[in-house]
Design brief:
- The chain has about 600 residues and is of the alpha+beta class.
- The chain folds into four domains: about 190 residues, Heat Shock Protein 90 (2-Layer Sandwich), CATH 3.30.565; about 120 residues, Ribosomal Protein S5, domain 2; about 30 residues, no CATH class; about 220 residues, Ribosomal Protein S8, Chain: A, domain 1 (2-Layer Sandwich), CATH 3.30.1370.100.
- The protein is about 35% helix and about 20% strand.
- The protein is built from 19 helices and 22 strands.
- An eight-stranded mixed beta sheet has the order 5-4-3-6-2-1-7-8. Strands 9-10-13-11-12 form a five-stranded mixed beta sheet, sandwiched between helices.
- It is elongated, with a radius of gyration of 29 Å.
- The N and C termini lie far apart (about 80 Å).
- The structure holds adenosine-5'-diphosphate (ADP) and magnesium ion.
């Protein structure tokens, strides 16, 4: 028998190793942006095509590379940032492992152009499958441009693993946000398919946060700042009222590097205790600076997790700094949260949505067509609600589709409306439950879950082609979204329209609300849409659901009456009636029971009778 062990060819070894560093277009975005920061650039432009699947390109005005360095840069373990093991404990750069460019070159087609200020000519390099296919002198600007094309063109299995453009784009925006937030003194832009999505002028951290996360944080940020010999913390937390349903806007940076730390997150949440509701997440962007000797950043290939020499001190420090900041804010609410002069001069700030955009809004076709009718509210007829008496006819169709959900804890056959007594009063308990008397006992209906079920089925039908009733707005409002949310909203427009939300894209990150479902109060359109997006993000890591399914669930959740809402007799009857008209009345969309049944004979048994 021949020997069977052999060395892998370099390009295959590189492809395998690349898997750790480059998982998706967003990983390349992170690495290329960090390289540009390390190169001392103060102007960094990111361009992507097809959510990064076709192209990720970063152009910087940093220090550039010599011809030899340009070639070396793509070798595995080639780095200019450390040379001995001790250097690991003095790291001040973003990169140091010397793997990113080698990894990218192993799984994509790369074009590099680079030039140092002291050289008269630059270098151009083309690489594919870890092999240089072209190197020649080129006239180019000082700095570096790296274009990564057709990611995973040579690893089809991994290419197939990439998600929808909306999902990949979201990862890219996340990475971009993390780097751009850490370096507010650097200009950053992001263009997607030729359209500029972010244009971030140099400025203060506060300005950068508002540019990135949206104007609603404007004047709602509390400064956090504590300095000690051991470590410093600076940054901002959102005022409690800006807390959201999803944990999106939470950022920790250690020595300018974005990190994920459940432990430190916990310390901030502790500081916010009692100031925000339990299930909501305050915004924070906190920067911890400490001696690199106190850190091990080398524990994770993409360096998002790090080890602190003394975690407990850091925990306590973060918590007390945030508490201190919040305390100051509540005793001195007039603290100066004004924007710096620089940002006040920015167009997006100095020209708020109102004047200019309202003018354009009012000249849009939908608006014109509508106002000509001189109608304040135009409500299209909605599907007639089923009648109370139908309700007593045995429900025959419901049970079958229940199987797709986790089965409720009670028997399926009890899901029928049979047996409910039409003539009786219902009772509301704890503003959360409805007691519904039946012939042989009672049912306990959970109002929020029941309503979610009703709306879930209604929105499902709407999206499948029976549009919901829409009320058109007399004065269409313009809403400006955080850029990342605008990307998501853009994707959802057609389905939202079926669900009764008429939105028109309107310039960068803005939308005009032309109409909302009939049950959304006017004046609340923006809040309602923001909540839907938040809930959508909440679901978005859930791979089981399609985009449409996530949207339907978000809508149902958003519109459902919540616990703590007092209901009239009429409302309770309507809710119960609607519930038992559902295909699957016995579970909420998430598979929780919407009601429990109690029979007198069982109750009797419990009382030993
Ligand atoms: P690392 O950043 O860990 O050193 P990389 O593979 O990302 O490893 O980059 C390898 C080397 O290429 C860097 O150490 C740096 O010297 C050089 N380099 C990469 N990107 C740039 C850039 N945009 N400008 C100048 N030099 C760069
Ligand atoms: Mg690097």
């Amino acid at each position: 028998m021949p020997d069977i062990i052999h060395l892998l060819p370099d390009n295959i070894a590189n492809q395998i190793a690349a898997g750790e560093v480059i998982q998706r277009p967003a990983s390349a975005v992170k690495e290329l942006l960090e390289n540009a920061v390390d190169a001392g650039a103060d102007d960094i432009r990111l361009m992507i095509q097809d959510a990064g699947k076709a192209l990720v390109q970063v152009i910087d005005n940093g220090k550039g590379m010599s011809d030899t360095d340009a070639r070396m840069a793509f070798e595995r373990h080639a780095t200019s940032k450390i040379s001995q093991i001790d250097d690991l404990f003095r790291i001040r750069t973003m990169g140091f492992r010397g793997e990113a460019l080698a990894s990218i070159a192993a799984v994509a087609q790369v074009t590099l152009k680079t030039k140092r200020a002291e050289d008269s000519n630059g270098t151009m390099l083309e690489i594919e499958n870890s092999k240089v296919t072209l190197q020649e002198p080129v006239a180019t600007n000082n700095g570096t441009s790296i274009a990564m094309k057709n990611l995973f063109f040579n690893v089809p299995a991994r290419r197939n693993f990439l998600k929808s453009n909306a999902a990949e784009l979201r990862h890219i925006v996340d990475e971009f946000t993390r780097v751009a937030m850490a370096f507010p003194h650097i200009f950053f832009s992001l263009s997607s398919n030729g359209q500029e999505v972010f244009h971030l002028e140099k400025g203060s951290l506060k300005q950068r946060i508002v540019q990135l996360l949206g104007n609603h944080y404007n004047a709602r940020l509390v400064s956090v700042q504590e300095q000690t010999d051991y470590m410093n913390i600076t940054g901002f937390v959102g005022k409690p009222e800006t807390a959201k349903k999803t944990r999106g806007d939470q950022y920790f940076f250690v020595n300018s590097r974005f990190i994920k730390s459940a432990y430190l997150n916990h310390s901030v949440m502790q500081a916010f205790q009692d100031l925000v509701p339990k299930d909501s997440f305050p915004m924070y962007a906190l920067f911890i600076d400490l001696d690199p000797e106190q850190l091990d950043i080398n524990v994770h290939p993409t360096k998002q997790e790090i080890k602190f020499e003394d975690e407990k001190i850091v925990y306590a420090f973060v918590q007390s700094a945030v508490k201190h900041a919040l305390a100051q804010f509540s005793i001195t609410p007039t603290l100066d949260f004004d924007l710096d002069v620089d940002i006040q001069r920015l167009d997006s700030v100095s020209k708020p949505v109102t004047d200019e955009s309202r003018h354009i809004a009012s000249s849009s076709s939908l608006y014109q067509g509508f106002t000509k009718k001189h109608q304040a509210h135009f409500i299209e007829p909605s599907k007639e609600m089923g009648h109370w008496k139908d309700f007593f006819e045995p429900a025959s169709k419901q049970a079958s589709s229940a199987d797709q959900y986790r089965l409720p804890i009670h028997e399926k056959k009890e899901a029928s409306a049979e047996g409910i007594r039409p003539d009786t009063d219902f009772y509301q308990v704890q503003e959360s439950y409805i007691i519904v008397p039946t012939h042989d006992g009672y049912r306990l209906v959970q109002q929020q879950l029941a309503h979610e079920r009703i709306l879930y089925e209604r929105f499902s039908q709407a999206v499948a082609g029976k549009p919901m009733a829409t009320q058109q707005s007399l004065f269409p409002v313009t809403m400006e979204m955080a850029p990342a949310d605008a990307v998501i909203l853009g994707e959802l427009l057609p389905d939202l329209q079926h669900a009764g939300y008429l939105l028109e894209p309107f310039g960068k990150n803005s939308f005009i609300v032309q109409g909302t479902p009939a049950d959304v109060e006017t004046g609340n359109e923006k809040a309602a849409i923001e909540k839907i997006i938040e809930q959508y993000k909440h679901f978005s890591s859930d791979l089981r659901f399609s985009k449409r399914e996530k949207l339907i669930r978000s809508l149902a959740w958003q519109h459902a009456i919540k616990e703590g809402t007092r209901l009239t007799q009429k409302e309770m009857h309507r809710l119960v009636e609607d519930l038992f008209h559902c295909e699957t009345p016995n579970t909420s969309p998430n598979g929780r029971p919407t009601y429990l049944s109690f029979r007198k004979q069982d109750l009797d048994k419990m009382f030993g009778k």
